[in-house]
Specification:
Two copies of one chain form a homodimer. With 546 residues, chain A is an alpha+beta fold. Helix content of chain A is 36%, strand content 20%. Chain A contains 19 helices and 18 strands.
């Protein structure tokens, strides 16, 4: 078991905490804005957490050991606790506030497709719910150990032992991968052959290929390499009804597309065990350009044109004025050097007639050969009259810390500040109206001091992803507080024409909204398919299908 | 009704015939190789074709007129005949040899979604099979008027009156289109706003948006603009169970993908009535480069590297040595100018140490700005030492005649030569083995003089489409002859790891092979979905689902 799983109460590495300097501007700001608590409340001790007693009978325990190997069946409280939650804000609130929660009755570790097939047959016969578990980083309750009333117990199936790279084909630019491999291990293996998958979600270090596929995810460089749905050539999925395989081909017109029924299936149709993925030779160079653009409207126009003109950036991130201010505060140092820097920035903005409180931070990354990047840098200057260039440095800084931000959430939760994110994708024509609606409506359900930040990323020719973050002082009932906000913001996004999720998926927390996204026919179709592949609904109950 | 529908016995325009000059090299070659008949047998006269009597009762006729408007119900022999077949080789053999064939009992023309919904309800209640009909250009029997034993009649539903462009959005780069519009009408409307869909199948002039989507097609420039599955943002489909709509969004991670169940549904799940498509600003310039590459192996390597190095051509077409020879013969003129040209070519080849009988013709097209094309032309020279450049002229010639080749099939069929095509897609690592297997195995089922040609096109980072054409002297039983060839070549393609079809679809002729492509689970899934949306199987029986 990878060591990071030991940190059951928060994000990522056990040893790591977001460093929040009490003498910093940022600390002062948070204290003032959200009445932040000075001291960080330590997370509860493992021994303080009372897990429900395991419902696994001795005979079941022995049967599991026989089926999957005695070393692969765990029932100790620590392992059960570590698999009792994902990394959603409500999950972490529950952990932190010691709210009594469900836990799997046992955790088993798969080492082969054959043993998974056996386990599925067994669980089906014995009416035991089974939760496929990759990295456990779901922010929507995708791995929560739910069961139906008819199930006698719930077991989590951890796939991290199935972490082999089975083949890297340098001619076809494909790699055949076991689904339990974590991001860094996969990239290391590909990099050794001078390839990359190019899939870097914020959860990269703590999520698996299987999880990326099950949630139909996207990485930070998806506009260059593609979303995971573009990268999957073929899949192998073990279901109670048998093993499903899709054909390993680059493209096809032989009817509806089978693999697009399995991508995004959230562990509810079967256990994703293997994938053939498209890989790309590692680009030689990477470059960053950053700007302050006049305002959000202008910023949206600029990022749209960058994409529609095929400039082929590898990343675009446009922060709205609120997020820009927040990041400026976050990164503002004290001392005369910082003062000077601030003065220079203000002078630059004045010259460009850009008001600081309207300015939007724009980060653009490109990857490629020296020649390609030179050409890119030239082309990207088309909007220089409406923006202030900040050079590459803020980009490199972002790059160095791009997987770190989730640690801040734990730091804030521990100091009485509630944080969560919402994301959607929408056509360009509706980007601004959705943006204003969400900002306006979210504020209605926050306290007067609450904050909503937004950035545009993952741009397409036809639209973009909008990513919202809210921060507010936590009430004495943070779970209820969160629920009200989640409900209202999600309804606002859907009413404004946005998708329920651009890259987080469905999980437990989006399930009830699914019908608004897809209409009854497709929700019914998912039910029918579920029933056919998993008639006893043992797989990941309460996710994707009611 | 568009006038081209008057030509029921062959491809395209009524007035058009492939011009085969009896004094040409090509004519001589065909005569010698295939004992081609000197005179072209005229297609049968319409009056000579005996259609089965219509099974539509008077009461049904009146009901249809009430539901869809009296002007939209036709039962005359001419209209029935024109809707009795697609443009597959067996269809055209049947037409030409006056083999008694099925015909729809009536043809109706839809003008609105509402009337289609009514018609579906009526046909369901009355047990009448309904065949959605776009352009009628299917080469796999996709519009053949089949019915189940339980059906009392079969009606073809022509969609060409639903041909409006509902919206072109220049901000979101989307267009909302009625499904019955033909390629040229759509492009004209888009071009007026300086956009293009970029979807140019060989059937472009005689196929519709609905047909492209129903068969999951690709255009000749798909490597630049995307396959139709990449271009569809959202769909509206009328089924007997109600109207299905998918959400108009650029991307999403909310579970499996609904629209990918409808793309490629071959009219078996519902009638595709509207689509929101991604459009692209028209590139300013177009350029062609053509080459003779040393041999097929080298050619495959070159086209793979062009794609994998992201040179972004808009079209690649690599002919094997057989197809290259065939085209050289086809285009060879007589006279001293042609002689000189031939001499020069041979000298050029000799200098490059390329054997004429091994040489493979490579056509590359790029679209974009002047700057992009200049850069492209520079980059494309990387394989100049292994090839002889022929300049842009043969490319422009290809471009001018790119929709003409299907007329040749009619010309040859009328002179006793059987022609058909097979296409597939496969991973790069298997391109050559599949190529050699198909050439070898096809020859086994042709006469000793039979010919198999191949080109590679529609390249991807991970693989390519291979497109085979065979020509052989027609036997006295051409349908049986065709069936033996079709069966053997298709099995060879599937055994070699290729997909059943890269862009022709499934239709009637690929149905029985579908299980080999998808395995029983997905074929069963299609059945289940069919049964839910169309419980009486009235929609396009015998296609996609048994």
């Amino acid at each position: 078991m990878k060591s990071y799983l030991n940190k059951w109460w928060g994000w990522g590495d056990e040893a790591k905490r977001y460093s929040l300097d009490p003498s910093s501007h940022f600390f002062e700001y948070l204290t003032k804005q959200f009445e932040m608590e000075n001291a960080w409340t330590l997370p509860p001790k493992e021994d303080d957490i009372e897990l429900p007693p395991s419902r696994i009978a001795n005979s079941t325990y022995e049967a599991l050991r026989n089926l999957i190997g005695p070393q692969n069946v765990k029932m100790d409280p620590h392992t059960r606790l570590c698999h009792s939650l994902g990394r959603s804000t409500p999950d972490l609130i529950q952990a932190r506030f010691k709210i009594r929660r469900e836990a799997p009755d046992a955790v088993i570790f798969a080492e082969s497709i054959e043993s998974i097939a056996k386990i599925l047959k067994y669980c089906e016969a014995e009416n035991i719910a089974l939760i496929p578990f990759g990295g456990g980083s779901s922010v929507l309750g995708g791995v929560s150990p739910q069961k139906k009333e008819t199930h006698q117990a719930v077991i989590t199936l951890n796939l991290q032992k199935m972490d082999r790279v089975l083949e890297i084909n340098a001619v076809s630019h494909t790699a055949q991968i076991q689904a339990g491999i974590l991001g860094p291990d996969l990239e290391k293996a590909l990099n050794q052959k001078n390839f990359t998958l190019g899939h870097f979600p914020q959860s990269f270090e703590f999520s698996t290929v299987g999880g990326w596929i099950a949630t139909r995810g996207s990485g930070q460089n998806s506009i260059f390499y593609g979303n995971i749905s573009d990268l999957v050539l073929a899949l192998k999925v073990v279901t109670p009804a048998g093993i499903l395989e899709t054909k390993k081909i680059p493209a096809s017109s032989t009817g509806p597309d089978a693999k697009n029924l399995l991508i995004g299936s959230e562990g509810a149709f079967g256990v994703i065990v293997e994938a053939t993925l498209k890989i790309t030779p590692r680009p030689v160079f990477r470059t960053f350009e950053t700007f302050l653009v006049k305002d959000f409207k202008m910023g949206v126009k600029v990022v749209r044109e960058i994409e529609q003109d095929h400039l082929r950036p590898s990343l675009i991130r446009l922060s709205d004025a609120h997020e820009t201010q927040f990041f400026l505060t976050m990164n503002r140092s004290k001392g005369w050097k910082a003062y000077l820097k601030q003065r220079l920035l203000k002078m630059g903005l004045k010259k460009k007639k850009i008001a600081l409180d309207q300015a939007c931070f724009l980060l653009v990354e490109a990857q490629g050969s020296h020649e390609e990047l030179t050409s890119f840098k030239k082309k990207i200057r088309f909007f220089r009259s409406q923006s202030l260039s900040l050079g590459g440095e803020p980009g490199w800084k972002w790059h160095a810390t791009r997987f770190e931000l989730p640690y801040l959430r734990d730091e804030l939760l521990g100091r009485g500040i509630l944080v969560d994110t919402f994301e959607t994708a929408i056509l360009w024509e509706n980007v601004e109206s959705l943006y204003h609606a969400v900002i306006h409506e979210t504020k209605k359900v926050l306290t007067p001091k609450g904050l909503v930040l937004c950035h545009v990323s993952h741009v397409y020719a036809t639209g973009a992803c909008l990513y919202f973050t809210f921060l507010d002082k936590a009430s004495s009932q943070p779970l209820d507080q969160w629920r009200v906000i989640k409900e209202h913001v999600t309804q606002t996004i859907l009413s404004a024409g946005g998708t329920l999720s651009h890259h987080h998926g469905v999980g437990r927390d989006h399930l009830k909204f699914l019908i608004q996204e897809h209409g009854p026919w497709f929700v019914e179709e998912l039910k029918v398919m579920k029933h056919r592949l998993d008639p006893k609904h043992i797989l990941n109950p309460g996710k994707l299908v009611e």
